[in-house]
Amino acid sequence: MTTDTIAPLYHAAIQADNDWQAALDRAGVDRYSAAASQGYFSEMYAAKVAAYDAFRIAAFPHASR
Hints:
The chain is mainly α. The protein has two helices and no strands. The chain has helices spanning 3-27, 39-59.
């Protein structure tokens, strides 16, 4: 993998995290509360985790096995 392929994955992961946190902030939900792990927020969190996993697997393929 090159930086050209990994960088967009990294930026997507950061954006997914920022989107999740912004949605929580707009709703007045603490990120450590039970509400942060339910419904819409859990879908956003799953997207965030998937984005980070894609980056991690691309950046560190040997560590992912």
